[in-house]
Design brief:
The complex is a heterodimer of chains A (280) and B (280). Chain A has 1 helix and 21 strands. Chain A is mainly β. Chain A folds into 2 domains: 4-122, Cupredoxins -  blue copper proteins (Immunoglobulin-like, Sandwich); 139-279, Cupredoxins -  blue copper proteins (Immunoglobulin-like), CATH 2.60.40.420. The radius of gyration of chain A is 18 Å and the shape is globular. In chain B, strand 1 and strand 2 (21-28) form a beta hairpin. The longest helix of chain B has 8 residues, at 143-150. In chain B, 54% of the residues are buried. The model of chain B has no long low-confidence stretch (mean pLDDT 97). Classes of the chains: A mainly beta (280), B mainly beta (280). Chain A binds chain B through residues 66, 68-69, 71, 73-74, 77, 79, 81-83, 106-109, 111-112, 159-164, 204-206, 221-224, 226-228, 236, 238-242, 264-266, and chain B through 158, 160-165, 200-202, 204, 206, 208-211, 223-232, 247, 249-252, 256-259, 261-268, 272, 274.
């Protein structure tokens, strides 16, 4: 018997409008029949020790869910190469931390089409701690990082998925040269408030995240506490990884966040996404 | 103890998983057996290693043990010898840095595995013990480079755009025939995987089913051991990771830079290994 049950629907004819007005075709998820698409997909939450059931309502035997980092058993792992496609997934969430889910069928295309979303496991008591007995926080944010290659959506020529030439660079599904101001992304907090920032890399290029000079610590990665707290100025995050950042600002101001996405060939910056942390 | 290896630089052809025959360069072992990657060289800590390179190609070649030693440049038909002390127990890459990264991309690479002299179950003298060890070398090639080199034409070293991706020299499912790529084990065992990136671009390896503990990077033990499910392995670097097999089943090990899960864009024919774990 699951402690939590989620139902997700696929919207196969979705799209999002980029900063330059271009519409990018997507296959996003949503959380109830007939409702608008949500991209990245709905945030799924459970407590440590809980069993979670997630049902894919309009799967049509073409897609799966892989709960990345959860270490589900083979029938609930969502890999068509190891188990027949199913609609309902049941698994234990044994470790508090940051995870994500994505389709694992023809993943190179389906993940690029937006079939992913964040998954957060809270401590057993559901309190605002990074894990049971771990650091406390006042508020938390999830930044799902990813990119789009608009040419992979062209119907004229079949793309070769070995060549990913990203031209849009996202935080939580939004892009642009101006800082992203969406309330799930731009952070406003008071001096002395503790903020837990969960980074998830759902894209294909290595990204470098900096918080505009705001001091922060890295306390966990991939659903496990780090052996010791680290205090870098940049977090480099690769495809599939997660890092949990904690900060308690002491100085008011506007901090310019940059997420630089690096070319796979040569480590030059291919494109960036920006947002703000405002400390009052 | 003195230990001598002979590597034969050679030109040959390879078969891709989708049936192409491509010109390649690589290293054959003492017996003259050619393969990409080249032979796995095994040594003990404290060994005095002599490497002889026999150049059976039409171009200059050398061999470098990354971070350890660089051999002389050997002209066609020539022979060169160099010596070095075996480094700290761990996993290392050897490759030909001539016109870097062209010869590496064409296949001139392999791994050196150094084990403690007293106890082969230990990762290093006095270090963690494992019941089984596996070596997984990831790499790629840019087909256009192999074609140009095969015609004796120059290759522009910054034009690299890989389109075939390998685990121990093969794409999935050909790689599944390799007992180092298709890991068999039993619940309760603790195993070591040695991840080697002998390619030119980063690879972000993700394990399904289990988290792993990062013990060493390029032969250096970690001060704090991170437990993760996804980690980038940068070119010419290695990671030794420990896994406790705590559930039965079949679980992929794959690159989450998803272009590298393809062969010339076709999924899932790239970097994908498998755990195949039975109840103990």
């Amino acid at each position: 018997m699951a402690n939590r049950a989620y139902v997700l629907w696929l919207r196969k004819n979705g799209s999002v409008i980029m900063h330059d007005g271009v519409a990018i075709d997507l296959w996003p998820f949503t959380d109830s029949k007939g409702s608008a698409s949500i991209f990245p997909g709905p945030l799924l939450v459970s407590n440590e020790g809980e069993t979670v059931e997630v049902t894919f309502k309009n799967n049509m035997n073409a897609h799966t869910f892989h709960f990345h980092g959860i270490d589900a058993d083979t029938p609930n792992d969502g890999v068509p190469e190891t188990w027949p496609v199913v609609d309902t997934y049941t698994f234990l969430t044994g470790h508090a931390g940051t995870y994500w889910y994505h389709c694992h069928a023809n993943t190179v295309l389906h993940q690029q089409m937006g079939m992913y979303g964040p998954f957060v496991v809270m401590p057993a008591d559901g309190s605002n701690h990074a894990w049971t007995g771990g650091p406390a926080f006042d508020r938390q944010y999830v930044w799902t990082l990813s990119e789009f290659d608009s040419r992979w959506r062209s119907s004229r020529t079949k793309p070769n998925f070995a060549y990913f030439n990203a031209d849009y660079f996202l935080i939580n599904g939004k892009d642009g040269f101006a800082p992203i101001t969406a309330e799930d992304t731009a952070i406003t907090c008071r001096i002395g408030e503790s903020v837990l920032l969960r980074l998830i890399h759902a894209g294909y290029l290595i990204a470098r995240v900096s918080l505009g000079g705001l001091p922060f610590t890295v306390i966990a990665s991939d659903g496990r506490p780090l052996p010791f707290v680290e205090t870098p100025s940049i977090v480099e995050i690769a495809s599939g990884e997660r890092y949990d950042l904690l900060f308690t600002p002491a100085i008011p101001g506007r901090y310019d966040v940059r997420v630089d996405y690096l070319n796979w060939y040569g480590r030059t910056v291919r494109g960036s996404a920006r947002t703000l942390i405002t400390v009052v | 103890m003195p230990r001598a290896f002979t590597l034969h630089a050679r030109e040959a052809t390879i078969q891709t998983v989708d049936g192409k025959t491509l010109y390649a360069r690589g290293f054959a072992n003492d017996d003259g057996t050619f393969g990409i990657p080249g032979p796995v060289l095994s040594a003990n800590e404290g060994d005095f290693i002599t490497v002889t390179l026999e150049n059976e190609t039409h171009q200059d070649h050398t061999v470098a043990f990354e971070g350890i030693a660089l051999g002389p440049t050997v002209p066609p038909g020539g022979r060169g010898t160099f010596t070095f002390d075996a480094p700290h127990a761990g996993t290392y890459v050897y490759h030909d840095p001539t016109i870097d990264p062209v010869n590496r991309a064409l296949g001139m690479y392999g791994a050196l595995v150094v084990t403690p002299s007293a106890n082969a179950e230990e990762i290093w003298a006095g270090g963690p013990r494992v019941s089984r060890q596996f070596l997984q070398i990831v790499s790629e090639l840019d087909e256009t480079w192999n074609v140009l080199a095969g015609q004796g034409r120059a290759v522009d070293p910054v034009s690299y755009r890989p389109n075939y991706f390998f685990l121990n020299g093969r794409g999935f499912p050909d790689s599944d025939l390799d007992p180092n790529a298709h890991i068999r084990g039993a619940v309760g065992e603790t195993i070591l995987i040695r991840w080697v990136n002998a390619g030119v671009v980063p690879h972000s390896l993700h394990t399904h089913g289990y988290h792993f503990k990062i013990l060493q990077e390029s032969g250096l033990p970690k001060v704090g051991v991170r437990e993760k499910d996804n980690v980038p392995v940068y070119p010419l670097r290695t990671l030794d990771v420990l896994i406790t097999l705590d559930q039965p089943g079949q679980y992929p090990i794959h690159d989450h830079i998803l272009m590298a899960n393809t062969a010339n864009g076709v999924y899932p024919k790239g970097i994908m290994g498998m755990f195949d774990i039975v109840q103990g």
